[in-house]
Amino acid sequence: MLKRFTVENYKNFQDPVTLDFSKVGKYKFNENCLSEGYLGKTMIYGKNGTGKTNFGRAMVDIQDLLIFSRFHGRNDFIKNANTEKKEVIFTYVFQWEKDEVEYEYQKNEKNELIAEKLVLNGKEIFHLCSENKEVASSKLKKLGIKETRIQSYFEALQESGESFDLAFLRWLLNNTAYTPSSILGKIREEVRGMHYIRTSERRNNVLFRLRDIEEEYDKLEIFLNKMGMKCKLKLIDDPVQERMNLYFDFKKPVEFFGNASSGTLALTEFFFRFYPALKNTSILFLDEFDAFFHYEMSENFFLYLKENYPNVQVVFTTHNTDLMSNGLLRPDCIFILSTEGKLTPLDKATERELREGHNLEKMYHSGEFAAYE
Q1: Which H, E and C letters describe the chain, residue by residue?
Q2: Domains 2-25+51-197 and 199-372 belong to one CATH topology
Q3: pTM
């Protein structure tokens, strides 16, 4: 479970900006917004240009470092342009039962790794940078590693010209034996389960998903109906295209993709993007999640994720203040991202003691939280 994430000197965030999932208020309503005692469903508001998209991309940066191609995004300019500070700092704090893991790494302005550090329960396991290229194998045993040839890592660095592009933690995940229940196993599962989806980036690739429809069309039908799109779907063999095709199930079947409304197609595309991401997901960052939704559909979608995926930490960004409601969320789960790059929950953005009966949307429009925008 992600306990806390902080990024500093990244794009428009000159100072550290933190999303702390452990800052849970004492509210007794909408407790299904929590996951294992941490904030589970959170909503971020902010004016245009405050960096909601940047924050989401920063949160999943660790995937490129540890799981995917280590050259992905290389030479992208990621440093804040208003400071002389060279390091862009990413800090992730994970909590699994009694074990707290803090993993911090630094990159330069060209998105290249320059340092990394891992701390387990307050004790440093390793810290690598250009001035320090030593690791104590005795400390690594605390991660659940039986044995490893650390020298192989440093030999790999030498072959690449002493570059730190190959993160040591990445090397451990791929070159040592460990169990899924070990610290390394949990880190790998957590990071692989992170997903970022920006719904306003239309891909127009619904048709290429047709190969998946035979397995997923029944789930698509359930999803569309949950969103308020009343329909029945069926698969029919299409001899012309020599494959199964999707139809609306009327007395005379109507081909789905050629006749569905633009809104239904947008929702269908969204389904085929986010549904696979929910399998084995730990964190889902949905940027502008309701950009194409009617306000009722936005609420339906939020409730759908809250009810069906209680253990997935979902971070939503939106401009839809209809969702700023104690009927759906709670003040500790709603955040405002300011133009200065500060992230503040509503219960800390006013001197009032916010209660279930407060109309948060009305308070927001009346300027109650304006000092934090």
Answers
A1: CEEEEEEECECCECCCEEEECCCCCCCCCCHHHEECCEECEEEEEECCCCCHHHHHHHHCHHHHHHCCCCCCCCCCCCECCCCCCCCEEEEEEEEECCEEEEEEEEECCCCCEEEEEEEECCEEEEEEECCECCCCHHHHHHHCCCCCCCHHHHHHHHHCCCCCCCCHHHHHHHHCCCCCCCHHHHHHHHHHCEEEEECCCCCCCHHHHHHHHHHHHHHHHHHHHHCCCCCCEEEEEECCCCEEEEEECCCCCEEHHHHCCHHHHHHHHHHHHHHHHCCCCCEEEEECCCCCCCHHHHHHHHHHHHHHCCCCEEEEECCCHHHCCCCCCCHHHEEEECCCCCEEEHHHCCCCCCCCCCCHHHHHHCCCCHHHC
A2: yes
A3: 0.90
What pLDDT, in 10s, does the model give residues 293-314?
888 888 999 999 999 899 999 9
Q: Which residues lie below 8 Å from residue 49, measured CB to CB, with a gap of 6+?
A: 12, 339
Domain boundaries, the chain: 2-25+51-197, 199-372
Residues of the chain with pLDDT under 50: 71-73, 208
For 210-230, how does the pLDDT look when each residue is reduced to its tens digit (9 = 90+)? 556 667 788 889 999 988 889
Task: Report residue 98 as tokens.
Answer: 């009694």
Which CATH fold topology does 199-372 show?
Rossmann fold (3.40.50)
Fold designation for 2-25+51-197: Rossmann fold (3.40.50)
